[in-house]
Amino acid sequence: MIRLGYRTRLAAGHAIVLAVTLGLSVVVLDWTVRRIILDQFDAALLHAAQSVGAEIDEEGPTSPVEALSTKPVRRLLWTFRPIIQVVDARGGIVTLLGSHVPLQLDPPQLKKVMGRGKIAFQTVTTADSKLLRVAALRASHGGQAYAVEVAHPLDDIELVLQRIRWLLAAAALAILIAIVATDLALTRQVLRPIDAIVRQARRLNDASLAEPLPHPGEPGELARLVETLNAMLARIHDSVEAQRRFTADAAHELRSPLTRLRTEIEVTLRRPRDAAEYRATLATTLEEIERLGAVAESLLILARLDAGEGRAAVTGTHRLSTIVEAIVGRFEPLATSRGLALRIAPHATDALVEAAPGIVDVVVGNVLDNAVKFSPPGGTIDVDITGTPYEICVTVSDMGPGIPEDELPRVFQRFFRGKSPRAMGASGVGLGLAIAQTLVQRQRGAIDIDSKPGSGTTVTIRLPAVSDGS
User: Fold this and answer.
1) Which pLDDT belongs to residue 3?
2) First-to-final CA distance of the chain
3) I need a surface site. Which of 124, 360, 389, 451 has the fewest CB within 10 A?
4) 467 vs 448: CA distance, rounded Å
5) Residue range 362-389: average pLDDT?
6) Residue range 263-279, pLDDT digits in tens
7) pTM value?
8) What is the CATH number of the domain that holds 290?
């Protein structure tokens, strides 16, 4: 099945509608012109019949036959060349002029003329198959009623009507061709920006997604469509670039520990070693394996979040303070082993959050892990819970070295590990805060960082609060 293009279908649709409209117009106009010409023709026949009837009504002539010999009737026969027939009350032909074939007026029409004195018009066919238009009226002579019938062939009228019909058809065809040609030109002009968009879209690939589609220049529906498509392409480009960076960073993070593992094992196997050296190698290998496991686990979490599984974890409302207290309790042994004081402030809010405990655990746990990791021995980590009827906040403050101002906008990027003292010498893969931000945003919340070098870091996690009665 052949599928026509939009431009062809649009032009064809317009042409069909226009052709039907012009066809109906030609039919109506032809009927109107025919009616006007016949009305004028009937008026001429009636005038001739009235002239003949007036001569018959005169008292001078001794009979209708003699009345038809008068000068006005002879002039009428010479100029108009009608067929004149006079019929008596019994239907008998009194006289017939202009033809040898008598006129056959229908009996109802003849009765209408003779009985009620009405004027009748009728198109009749003669014995030799000629179409005649007849006008009939009643006349009186010597106390006798007669029907005066004046007829004329319709050949000339039909010829004129046929010419008019051909002229109308030719004019309609010319109008149709002109309008279709104009319509095609206008359609081509209107669709030219779309053609440019299609050509540009066909050239798009991963490397050219940043190139916007050509804007039509004038405001309107097409301009809004192009703006929407360009915005969508920009989002796709950003997503592709982020995915490309993520893949490259993930490959780098996985390759580095694998390279160290291979090097460590190759060096160990070059010569026989004692048990202590083998244990040291195994301990180093275990650390790298744990790092690989952490990277793999973080990548799995991010993959699930990118697949849209973050919001599916919402399983009801929970008291945030209870969840945070449990997380702090789990981190206290680690903080104590590093000489840190981990404190949770007394909280006056018992607000509920609509989030699974596992999500809060990952978010707060990642933030606390960074605080413990970067705080110096003897430092303090404070955890506070505050809230309003609409929002509940978890704040984690540490006494670490802080984050340089130029690195703050990038701390939530995946695999970002700054060169500041906060990141130097610390373990991790740079995914904790990225995971935390993604999870919080999926719960319609936000996470902010306030930090200055030498002044510590404060991380604020904001989640929508749910009232007890909801």
Assistant:
1) 61
2) 59
3) 389
4) 24
5) 87
6) 888 888 888 888 888 88
7) 0.48
8) 1.10.287.130
